[in-house]
Every structure is written in C-alpha cells, then in structure tokens.
Amino acid sequence: MTVSSESSPGTTPGSSPRPAGAAGPAGAPAGDTDASARRLAYVTVGVPTLGFAGAVVFAFHYGISAVDIGLLAGMYLVTSLGVEGGFHRFFSHLSFTARPGVTAFWGIAGSMAAQGPIVFWVATHRQHHAFTDRDGDPHSPRPLEDGRRFPRVRGFWHGHVGWLFTVRRQNWSKYVPDLMRNRLVMKINQYYFGWVLAGLALPALLGWALTGGSARGAAGGLLWGGLARIFLLDHVTWSVNSIGHTLGNRPHRTRDDSRNVAALAPFSVGGSWHNNHHAKPALAHNRHTFWQIDIAGGVIRLLDVLGLVSHVRYPKRARSE
C-alpha cells in the first residue's frame, strides 16, 4: 500500500473529522475512561520505572559490565527501530511496503518496546495527526485551561505521559481498517504480551550466556537490556509528544505546534525531527537536510537497496543524495 507524499491515513489536508472519545475542549477528557487501558497504563509506566530504579541499585552493588551496556544498546536499537521505523513510519503512515518476514520483524520489534499493541499504537497516532494540537488530540501538551493552577505544567505532563491514564473508551478499529484486514498484523497484535515478555527474556538469556551462565549476567541483562531499556525508550518517545510540540525550531509552517528537537534525534532514531514529519507525514525519511540524523530512515534506505522493502517514499533531497 502507498499514500501521497503529503498525507497519510487520518491526515488528509483540509479534512476535519470529528473527534471521538479523545481529549475534549482545552484538553479536558470527554466520554468514559477506559478502565482496562488505565490499569495497563499503571503497568506500562510503573514496572519499567521500578525496573530502572532496580538497575541503578544493582549497578551500585555489582557494577555495570560491558555485557550490560551492550545489551542495553542492542535492545534499545532494535526496539527503537521497531517503534519509529515499524509502528510509526510503516504501520501508521504506510511509508513503504514490505514482505511478510520484514513486516513481522517491524511488528515484533515494536511490540517488544512495550508501548502498546500495534492496533492501539497506530490508532492513537493516526488520531493525533487528525486532530494535532486541537480537541481530539490524545496527547497534545497544550495548557489545560480549566481554572486550576499551573495549566502549562499540567498540559505538558498530559502530553508526555498523563494521557495514558485518561484514554477514553472507543472503537480503535475505525482508525486502522487496513491493519484489521491484515491477518499477520492482527496475529502479532494478539500476542502482544508474549512479545513484551520475549523482550525481557531475550536480554536475560543473552546476559546469562555471554557471562558463562552466571546469575549476575542474567540479572544484568534483564534489568539493563529489558526494564531500563523500556524506561529510557518510553521517555524518549513521550518526549517527542511533549517537547516536540513545545520547544524546538519550526522550519515548516504546519497547522500545529510541531517542532524539531535536534538533541533527541540520535535517541529517537530520527523521530524527533517532528516538524519535518508533520509537514510531510507519509515520507519514510524525516531527514530534510544533509546534517539531520535519521537512523530509522537510513535503515529503511538500506532495506530498500537490499530489496527487502519497496515503494519507499523519500524526500526529494534524500532521493537525490
């Protein structure tokens, strides 16, 4: 499937769909809170936070080894590419096409990031593009003008992580009819919690194997390559939602407050060129000038050269370089 280089699902220029079950006026929620999503949010946010704290305590007592660092870096790279290259550019914006094996890689790697199943992640993101920084945007960091104190701080917190606790009950499938028809994607979505557990078990097993079968190696792999990695990637992704609509430069005049945040570019594998993305959301590259770091875009280009993906949508500059 391909789309226009200027638009993508839920972002057709000039369209003004009505929000359903998202944030209401001035960011105030409307409708019934999804209780199951709220409970999942406590796990999604709380467990990695405790895990990161545990990793720090573990390092204080046992040190941090090269294996720990390697597993953190390796698992972070794979799952960040799964989120930015897979969940975002591939599944959300259909920026390129891929065969089933590559599709499965993107879906599994993104699921191992523990940011939600494919259907939820993509539906939320498409809703964000349809109503960016307006009523209906699930995670806009707009000031919450409801008469209470610190509207900017509370709005920023909502855009960063607070929105996860106020997700409204709604039919997510209406934002992702293409994914609902894809048996492979729905099968990966069905086993989401299994992929999350695999993302924890894999670094633990590698840590055990790379240290000669030691319990310390397994624990270090679980804490640093698993829980701490999820915590760090979560906050990088959420920072694109919050900081990326609050601070940074705006080379493109979009209808929203999206901004480029250069400092986050290496850690977000290119996702923080957010104003670039909102200007041309269907492109597979966020790099609009030669110096902008876009690791996900580079990987997509490599896969294109190898013939593993096709119909890749490039910016004109990137295509000519």
From TrEMBL:
Keywords assigned: Fatty acid metabolism, Iron, Lipid metabolism, Membrane, Oxidoreductase, Transmembrane, Transmembrane helix
Gene Ontology CC terms, in alphabetical order: membrane
Superkingdom of source: Bacteria
Enzyme category, top tier: oxidoreductase
Keyword Transmembrane attributed: yes
Any one GO biological process: fatty acid metabolic process
The enzyme's E.C. designation: 1.14.19.1
Similarity comment text for this entry: Belongs to the fatty acid desaturase type 2 family.
Name assigned to this protein: Fatty acid desaturase
Gene source species: Streptomyces eurocidicus
